Amino acid sequence: MPLRNINDLDRLKKINAALVSRVERSMDQQGNAFSLFQTAISLESRVRTRTEELHSTLRRLEQSNIDLSAAKENAEQANLSKTRFLAAASHDVLQPLNAAHLSVSALAEVQTSEEGKKLVRQVERSLETMEDLLRTLLDISKLDAGVVQPDIGDVSLEALFSSLRSDFQPVAELKALSLKFRPVNAVVRSDRTLLRRILQNILSNALGYTRSGGVLVGTRHRGDTIRIDVADTGCGIPEDQREAVFEEFHRGTLPATAELDGGGLGLGLAIVRRMAGALGHPVTFSSRVGRGTIFHIDVPVGLGAPADAIASAASMERPRGYGLFGTKVLLVENDAEVLEAMTFLLERWQCLVRAATSTADALDMLGDTDWLPDIVIADQHLDGGDLGTTTISEVRDYLGRAVPALIVTADSSEAVAKAARAGGIELMRKPVKPAQLRALLAHLLA
């Protein structure tokens, strides 16, 4: 209908309002679309920005991981280098320390006055403390660097206890303490060397912190494990020090007799925890102040036959006699100071000594058919790159018999121990304790 035909004013207003409303709705729709368009652009920009930030963060994280990996590798290399350095340094230090041990022991035998004997004993104690510290630092370094690989096998507890009894009985007697090992018909799965060191350190602590009474070592079967107990009647460990005793250089309150054994360095139980961790042998203890302490080591039951192991242990028991008079000793050692000190000590024991510094020298000594050695004592690392185990093998081949032999070395590596075992050769670590050397020589010659 044409507008000129519309005369109704109200009707015109309604049409106008409808048109205005339609236009406004159209404008609102366009405005909303524009707003959405702007929002979409803004979101896209923000997403792009956040994506770039995320990529940047990932790149930084990747670089940080690379840096951390490099730092970890450097730290591991530094740790291994430290271990190798300590091993080399300890070997070099142990050589003159061994010569000092031997010389002091020889000096002790010619002392007649009480004052002279007292001074010699003081020097011996200082040397023993130095030796213990060096060996312990080396052990801690190796364990922390993760280079100790346990050699797990069947270990006869009777043989192990017999060896420990031989080592610690003189210490107990010196302090007027009892030291008892309960007989045990058992074999466990462990590394014999590491397990022995664990028990050595616990026994040393037990005797060092005990004023009266003594120490008892026994075992208990607990299913698939055997629990080794080391009980003492010492001063005990206070409740607030139960965890601290396993920390380096922690020392408890020493009893009045501690001066007899130097009082300890506070490293024994730190070594125990590390070695036990490497073996997977839980170590716990119970203690009462003033009453004593019992340490427990849980070790898996072995697979071997205990009876055979015990028979072997009995056959290895060292005799008390030290008859070395007239024993012919072929001594192979390339360190001049050690050679001189060892020769002097053996001659004080009435041995007949011929010295060499290499395999060739040792074989030259055998040219005199009127002088055939009863025993060979050799260092492992000799002149010209010769090895003591090889020297002993060649000497035996030359003589046509398995002459008793002993490797005395400052090299604490498992490779040397395995080579000695493979050749049927006894092994003793430097610095040598003369009393132990004398007992071992008597045993080998028996």
Question: Can you walk through the features of this model?
Answer:
It is elongated and about 155 Å long. The protein has three domains: 71 residues; 168 residues, 2-Layer Sandwich (Heat Shock Protein 90), CATH 3.30.565; 118 residues, Response regulator (Rossmann fold, 3-Layer(aba) Sandwich), CATH 3.40.50.2300. The protein is built from eleven helices and twelve strands. The relative contact order is 0.09. The strands form three sheets. A five-stranded mixed beta sheet has the order 2-4-5-7-6. The protein has 446 residues and is an alpha/beta fold. Helix 1 packs antiparallel against helix 2, helix 4 runs antiparallel to helix 5 and helix 8 packs parallel to helix 9.
By CATH, the superfamily of the largest domain comes out as: Histidine kinase-like ATPase, C-terminal domain
Radius of gyration: 39 Å
Number of strand elements: 12
Average pLDDT, rounded to a whole number, is 80
What portion of the residues fall into strands of 2 or more residues?
Answer: 15-25%
Jot down its keywords:
11 helices; Heat Shock Protein 90; histidine kinase; 446 residues; Rossmann fold; HisK_dim/P_sf; transferase; HATPase_C_sf; five-stranded mixed beta sheet; alpha/beta; kinase
Please summarize what this structure is.
With 446 residues, the protein is α/β, with parallel strands linked by helices. It is built from eleven helices and twelve strands. Residues 255-263 and 307-322 have low confidence and may be disordered.
